[in-house]
Specification:
By secondary structure, this protein is an alpha+beta fold. The protein has helices at 23-51, 65-72, 74-104, 111-119, 126-136, 145-157, 279-282, 309-334, 338-346, 351-362, 364-379, 383-388, 400-409, 415-445; strands spanning 167-168, 174-176, 182-184, 198-201, 223-230, 254-259, 262-268, 274-278, 286-289. The protein has two domains: 73-149 and 303-413, MetI-like (MetI-like fold); 167-293, no CATH class. 48% of the residues lie in helices and 9% in strands. A hairpin with a 2-residue loop joins strand 6 and strand 7 (262-268). Helix 8 runs antiparallel to helix 11 (364-379) and helix 11 packs antiparallel against helix 14. Keywords: Cell membrane, Membrane, Transmembrane, Transmembrane helix, Transport. Its main location: membrane. The chain crosses the membrane at residues 24-46, 84-104, 116-137, 317-336, 362-389, 417-437. Residues 80-436 form the ABC transmembrane type-1 domain.
Length: 446
């Protein structure tokens, strides 16, 4: 065994460092990074903590007063509640969808193409995604994709009103009778020679564009007859309450005969607007046009209203980040030993048992990484909420990062309160980061 090299003084020479260089040289190279770290991270944190102890002007020391005001403010409490919803729901749903996509696409030929499509939203900025989903959630079904689909499904199972918004002619026998329906003031008689005609106005031209001309109902034995039509002649010249030659019939309307508040007979108008009720039941009854004839068309769901705005924005976040979760989980799934999966199948385990008892436990470290990463990400969510939520729903969709922006730079500027929110948000992120660092340390020890 050779002796260690001696120094000039007869001592033992120190071993070179791992990197083979002196420490002061390493410090010189690290100094620019440390300066930037101090200027961009350490100083802002220290200044935010200091500023949170002063009032809005920055001159009056209030101690922890801003933190007390933060928890007593209803707006900030709403933001905190929404942050809790975000942290619980968004990472869990994104991770679950990523796991499902990664497992299912492993066995299909076009799995790579599917992964590419799902991952593509990650290439879009939060700003662009917010603008996209602001249009997707538009209330007008002609513009908003979500409501276009929803209205299409609704109208498949629910017949829309034939003439939404139509009303009786002023001074006509028909009068509003509550709930959007119209009822005649006078009762109909079987022995009357005249037809029981019901004129309407305010019908949209698109609803009668292809309608037939209204016909005068002919008397029929044992029947009470009449006509429902659009009492309007284009260009003028028509006579009120009289069926003129070019006036349009209103087909598909329900006409009811009502006695004592009960419907005793009902009929539907034909293509020429005529109808017929049995005289033995309708004699002495009043005629009613129910509200279902005139109900406004279904206009979908108010996705960005105060009730659904937070779930709607979380949906847009999941659309963006489910692909990120899928790619990381798919990489972990590729490292899972296939022998274990095949051995379980040979032993008679079903696919669900293999997934639940083998695949998920082996992917647990990867799932934790994805979950923790997304939790840190959603604690800082700002862009999507600020862009998607309209002014009327912004308070209901509020989150801490948005409230930090509004308190620091909004109309009611209070930098002390804004700094307190920033410090509180940092404190919320620290436990999650600590868990992540502990996990990384454990991985290094293996």
């Amino acid at each position: 065994m050779s002796a260690l090299p001696a120094t000039a003084a007869g001592g033992v020479r120190k071993r070179p460092s791992v990197l083979g260089t002196r420490r002061w040289v390493a410090a010189v190279f690290l100094l620019p990074a440390l300066v930037l770290l101090g200027a961009l991270v350490v100083y802002p944190i220290a200044f935010s903590v200091y500023r949170s102890l002063f009032d809005a002007s920055g001159n009056g020391f209030v101690g922890l007063g801003n933190y007390g005001a933060m928890f007593s403010d209803d707006t900030i409490r709403t933001a905190l509640k929404n942050n809790v919803i975000w942290v619980v729901v968004a990472p869990a749903v994104s991770t679950a969808l990523g796991l499902i996509f990664a497992v299912l696409t492993e066995r299909v030929r076009w799995g790579t193409a599917f992964k590419l499509v799902v991952f593509m939203p990650m290439a879009i900025s939060m700003l662009a995604a917010g603008i996209i989903f602001r249009l997707v959630y538009d209330q007008d079904p002609q513009r908003g994709v979500a409501n276009a689909v929803w209205v299409g499904v609704h109208d498949t199972f629910a017949e829309p009103a034939p003439f939404p918004g139509a009303t009786p002619r002023p001074n006509a026998d028909l009068r509003p009778s509550g709930g959007g329906s119209f009822t005649t003031r006078s009762a109909v008689r079987a022995r009357a020679a005249a037809s029981a005609n019901l004129p309407l106005v305010a019908v949209r031209q698109d609803d009668v564009r292809d309608a037939e001309r209204a016909a005068v109902a002919r008397p029929r034995p044992g029947k009470i007859t009449g006509t429902v039509w659009l009492d309007f002649t284009r260009g003028g010249g028509g006579r009120p309450n009289v069926i003129d030659g070019n006036e349009k019939a209103l087909a598909g309307l329900t006409v009811q005969a009502v006695k004592g508040g009960q419907v005793v007979a009902s009929a539907t108008t034909a293509a020429d607007g005529t109808y017929a009720l049995p005289a033995d039941k309708a004699d002495g009854a009043r005629l009613r046009l129910p509200a279902a004839n005139f109900a406004a068309p279904y206009n979908g769901v108010d996705w960005v209203g105060p009730t659904l705005v937070t779930p709607a924005i979380i949906g847009s976040y999941v659309w963006m980040w489910a692909g990120f979760a899928m790619v990381l989980i798919a990489a972990g799934l590729a490292a899972v030993p296939r022998e274990l999966l095949e051995a379980a199948r040979v032993d008679g385990a079903g696919e669900w048992q293999v997934f639940r008892r083998i695949t998920v436990p082996l992917l647990a470290p990867v799932l934790v990484v994805v979950l923790v990463t997304l939790m840190i990400n959603v604690l800082k969510i700002f862009d999507l909420v600020y862009i998607i939520a309209p002014g009327s729903s912004l308070r209901s969709a509020n989150v801490l990062a948005l409230q930090l922006f509004q308190s620091s730079f909004g109309t009611d500027v209070d930098e002390g309160l804004g700094s307190a929110i920033a410090v509180f948000l940092l404190l919320l992120v620290l436990p999650v980061m600590y868990v992540n660092l502990r996990r990384i340390q454990k991985e290094r020890r293996r």
